Amino acid sequence: MKFTRRTLLGSVAGAAALAQTPPPPSPEPADQNKVNADAIAKVALPQSTEPAFAFRA
After folding, report:
1. Cα(14)–Cα(9) distance, rounded to whole angstroms?
2. pTM
3. Which spans in 1-57 are helix H?
């Protein structure tokens, strides 16, 4: 059986395209924000850790 570069490339590229799976569905942004907020709230952060900062517009 004779393979040319084009037929070989076509068969390899086709197989690679079929092998790709779509990414899993991401959770809703509001749900993800709640999960992140809960994770941050679990960490104790002493006041001395935060820098002195005054925001002036």
Report:
1. 8
2. 0.36
3. 5-19, 29-41
